């Protein structure tokens, strides 16, 4: 068999790359604006191609993202458009492309990689693991939404998708600063990922509608982005893509709004955080159904010490972690993580130090379990109980869990 080589896909091969992607995902060849959009997205990505001679048999694209982590943000390769020709399955093509991406991330100082999976059974063996979870709710609107708190009564107004990024960007940024797992957005990301005129998954949905809350001369206190869908009788559903609020009262006002839109029989909100206050301040839980809970963003620690040192911690801890990693050999080994009060002049809070050590381990993690805990979604003790993490020193998992805990659960709304 001809050797498969991994190299950057040139701009001249973008049409080939898209044709391969549509073939693999059983999609009809996109034409017109949709193909133009896909090409525009690929032009901004780092592209890994698998070539057999001059034939393109594999594609992997990576968005250059900034991902919020506890206390800050880190560079992250957002993996997408992963495609292997059906003639080249089970020949190590995907492994080769991911290996090439890991090498590029290391060379560029990118400590994280992330993706949304099409098949959950594939990516664990490459060190990825769900690091955020979400649920989907459905609300029947045959009666007003019953609330236990008073909604914010400031005015609501509909704004155009073109002006929305400038208006709501600060509100999104504030929400992102409070939760790990969120992607930084520029105008391109707002236009192509959040507010594109047509929904790529369902062409029956309307263009995006954006409603903000607050006085016209003030920054919005919250916003909701949604699309609608109607049946042959003029009745419809409202699909929420994103709802952000600076307070419970603002959130209550936005939920009251979406559940009172005329002709809408049901509101469906995909991808809500597990600690969403809606389920606490609603007065009638029979009206709100949690119909799905699912793993959302899958994370991969490309640089274990860099990732550990790059996030904030919530309590002092001194533990030795033994990490196994079959995909990125330089990650394997033992690390001492010390989180202590910042002793530098003017320092406040806690600072972390991560260094290699030969000391006996307190905990043994595979890199995928470390990713599951990294943003604060899972407590390491839960993974010890599941037999996926080994605790060598009693209390080490509880201590690491206390140090990694975050005020809000990590949450991801940006699907790529």
UniProtKB/TrEMBL annotation:
User: Keyword Ribosomal protein on this protein?
Assistant: no
Q: Which domain of life is it from?
A: Bacteria
List, for all copies, the residue spans of the domain called N-acetyltransferase: 4-150
Q: Which residues bind acetyl-CoA?
A: 82-84, 90-95, 118-119
Keywords noted in UniProt: Acyltransferase, Transferase
For this protein, the record's InterPro entries field holds: Acetyltransf_17, Acetyltransferase_Eis, Acyl_CoA_acyltransferase, Eis_dom, GNAT_dom, NAcTrfase_Eis, SCP2_sterol-bd_dom_sf
Q: Name one Pfam family in it.
A: SCP2_2
Q: Where is the active site?
A: 123, 416
Q: Does the keyword Transmembrane helix apply?
A: no
One GO molecular function term of this record is: aminoglycoside N-acetyltransferase activity
Family annotation (SUPFAM superfamilies): Acyl-CoA N-acyltransferases (Nat) (SSF55729), SCP-like (SSF55718)
A Gene Ontology annotation in the biological process aspect, one of them, is: aminoglycoside antibiotic catabolic process
Q: Which NCBIfam families does this one have? A: PRK01346.1-4 (NF002367)
**Entries under PANTHER family matching the protein:** N-ACETYLTRANSFERASE EIS
The similarity annotation says:
Belongs to the acetyltransferase Eis family.
HAMAP family xref list: Eis
Q: What is this protein called?
A: GNAT family N-acetyltransferase
Task: Give the organism, scientific name.
Answer: Streptomyces qinzhouensis
Q: What is the lineage of its organism?
A: Bacteria, Bacillati, Actinomycetota, Actinomycetes, Kitasatosporales
């Amino acid at each position: 068999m001809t050797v498969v080589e991994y190299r950057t896909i040139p701009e001249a091969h973008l049409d080939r790359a898209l044709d391969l992607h549509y073939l693999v995902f059983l999609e009809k060849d996109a034409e017109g604006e949709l193909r133009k959009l896909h090409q525009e997205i690929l032009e901004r990505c780092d592209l890994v191609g698998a070539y057999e001679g001059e034939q393109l048999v594999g594609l992997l694209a990576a968005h250059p993202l900034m991902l919020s982590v506890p206390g800050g943000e880190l560079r992250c390769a957002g993996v997408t458009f992963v495609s292997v020709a059906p003639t080249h399955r089970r020949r190590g093509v995907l492994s080769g492309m991911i290996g090439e991406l890991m090498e590029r991330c290391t060379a560029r100082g990118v400590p994280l990689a992330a993706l949304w999976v099409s098949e959950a059974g594939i990516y664990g063996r490459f060190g990825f693991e769900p690091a955020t979870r979400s649920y989907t709710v459905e609300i029947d609107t045959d009666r007003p939404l019953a609330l236990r708190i008073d909604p914010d009564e400031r005015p609501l107004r509909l704004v155009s998708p073109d002006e929305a990024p400038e208006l709501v960007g600060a509100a999104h940024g504030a929400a992102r600063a409070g939760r790990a797992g969120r992607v930084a957005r520029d105008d391109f990301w707002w236009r192509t990922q959040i507010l594109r005129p047509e929904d790529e998954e369902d062409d029956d949905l309307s263009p995006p509608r954006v409603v903000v809350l607050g006085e016209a001369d003030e920054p919005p206190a919250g916003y909701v982005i949604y699309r609608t869908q109607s049946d042959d009788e003029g009745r419809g559903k409202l699909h929420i893509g994103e709802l952000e609020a600076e307070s419970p009262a603002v959130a209550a006002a936005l939920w009251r709004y979406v559940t009172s839109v005329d002709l809408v029989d049901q509101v469906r909100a995909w991808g809500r955080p597990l600690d969403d206050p809606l389920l606490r301040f609603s007065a009638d839980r029979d009206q709100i159904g949690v119909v799905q809970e699912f793993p959302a963003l899958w994370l991969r620690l490309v640089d274990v010490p860099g990732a550990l040192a790059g996030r904030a911690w919530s309590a002092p801890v001194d533990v030795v972690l033994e990490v196994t990693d079959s995909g990125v050999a330089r990650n394997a080994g033992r690390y001492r993580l010390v989180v202590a009060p910042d002793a530098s002049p003017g320092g406040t809070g806690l600072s972390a130090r991560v260094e290699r050590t030969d000391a006996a381990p307190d905990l043994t993690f595979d890199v995928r379990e470390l990713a599951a805990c990294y943003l604060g979604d899972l407590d390491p003790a839960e993974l010890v109980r599941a037999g996926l993490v080994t605790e060598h020193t009693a209390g080490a998992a509880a201590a690491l869990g206390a140090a990694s805990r975050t005020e809000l659960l990590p949450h991801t709304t940006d699907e790529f």
